[in-house]
């Protein structure tokens, strides 16, 4: 039995369409899950969330379990994703921050130089983030489908730490690595160390796959990626792959970065809606599995158009084993819930083999 097989307590989870697709094996239909499948567009989510702040809720295993299960029960998606946020490891690193509704993560003291990097903790442990292990264990008792754990990639985390808040052009980060390469190296190494601990913790607790979100990496030129990111990304993927669970490597605006992302690592590469999925997969030489990439805005349209656009994505994948249907980025607030249900059912029916 492989490590990954042993990890799945039930054989049925190991053979679930989502995990089969991660391994590029045939499956009875194309599995589908959606980034941000639990979120404000759901009335049931808003009802639970109204009692807590986002940060409080992420630290309550019972609430995390309930919220994670909402889209599983409502839509019949093929995978659950732990309800949390990429900023949660900052709690373990003693970095002051908040998640501001309608804005996103805001850092109390943004990183300006080496002495700021030296201040924070360079590892996270179960003692510091006990709710992560507890939430995953609780979910594994409830779920019959695979559970995805996740973390932010070092660049995307650094983007928040240096900019201090969401940014359009990431000017301060881009200046940081060109002007202070030593501080950048220290920051990247710290974030890689923490992220390895954090993902290992999730795999050990029972996560069946792990997604690394490099949401803002599209801000970089490929040469810059190669020089200032690739070595750290390789170290991250190399270390976490020891767990034997599939790794999904996702970014947006990555049309020119795909070969470098592949070199960095990942059993599955996640692509956004800006490029045709077929072309991206070809560029990746069909080596990894692929995840994506319906434009999330399509879910605001009528069903005829949703079906047409979903067909387009399925046709791009051409029935090759190893396609995981997803949006090109997260479900947008305000998305009609019925349309999400329609999409999930439609992908299942249309791709049935
Ligand atoms: O996908 C899922 O269903 C799992 C949950 C999840 C959340 N955040 C919940 C969340 C995941 C995987 C994330 C990751 C995350 N967080 C990323 C990477 C994915 C991506 O979207 O690119 C990033 C960049 C963040 C940072 C962040 N946290 C942003 C930009 C926001 C939204 C701010 C806003 O109010 O619009 C958050 C908060 C957040 N994380 C919400 C959710 C459901 C909204 C919380 C709320 O107000 O209820």
Structure characterization notes:
By secondary structure, this protein is α/β, with parallel strands linked by helices. The chain has one domain (3-351): TIM Barrel, CATH 3.20.20.210. It has 18 helices and nine strands. A seven-stranded parallel beta sheet has the order 1-4-5-6-7-8-9. A two-stranded antiparallel ribbon has the order 2-3. α15 (258-264) links the parallel β6 and β7. The chain is globular, with a radius of gyration of 19 Å. The relative contact order is 0.14. The model has no long low-confidence stretch (mean pLDDT 96). The chain binds coproporphyrinogen III (CP3). Coproporphyrinogen III (CP3) is lined by residues 35-40, 49, 54, 81, 83-86, 99, 101-102, 104-105, 150, 213, 215, 330.
């Amino acid at each position: 039995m492989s490590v990954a097989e042993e990890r799945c307590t039930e054989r049925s989870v190991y053979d679930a369409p989502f995990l089969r697709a991660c391994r590029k094996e045939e499956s009875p239909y194309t599995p589908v899950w959606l980034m941000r499948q639990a979120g404000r567009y759901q009335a049931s989510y808003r009802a639970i969330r109204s009692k807590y702040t986002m940060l409080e809720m992420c630290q309550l295993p019972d609430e995390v379990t309930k919220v994670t299960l909402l889209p599983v029960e409502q839509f019949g998606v093929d995978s659950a994703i732990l309800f949390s946020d990429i900023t949660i490891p900052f709690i373990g690193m003693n970095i002051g921050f908040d998640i501001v509704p309608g804005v996103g993560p805001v850092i109390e003291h943004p990183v300006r130089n080496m002495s700021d990097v030296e201040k924070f903790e360079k590892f996270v442990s179960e003692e510091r983030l006990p709710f992560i292990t507890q939430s995953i264990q609780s979910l594994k008792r409830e779920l019959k489908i695979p559970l995805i754990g996740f973390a932010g990639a070092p660049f995307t985390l650094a983007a928040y730490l240096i900019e201090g808040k969401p940014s359009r052009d990431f000017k301060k980060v881009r200046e940081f690595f060109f002007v202070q390469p030593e501080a950048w190296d220290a920051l990247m190494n710290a974030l890689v160390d923490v992220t390895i601990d954090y993902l290992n913790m999730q795999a050990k607790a029972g996560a069946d796959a792990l997604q690394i979100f490099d949401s803002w990496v599209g801000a970089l030129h490929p040469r810059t990626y190669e020089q200032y990111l690739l070595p750290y990304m390789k170290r991250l993927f190399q270390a976490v792959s020891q767990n034997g669970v599939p790794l999904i490597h996702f970014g947006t605006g990555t049309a020119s970065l795909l070969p470098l992302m592949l070199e960095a690592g990942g059993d599955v590469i996640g692509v956004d809606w800006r490029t045709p999925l077929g072309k991206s997969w070809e560029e990746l030489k069909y080596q990894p599995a692929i995840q994506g990439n319906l434009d999330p805005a399509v879910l605001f349209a009528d069903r005829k158009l949703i079906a047409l656009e979903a067909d387009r994505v399925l046709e791009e994948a051409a029935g090759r084993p190893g396609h995981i249907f997803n949006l090109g980025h997260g479900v947008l607030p305000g998305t009609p819930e019925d349309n999400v249900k329609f999409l999930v059912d439609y992908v299942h029916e249309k791709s049935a083999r």
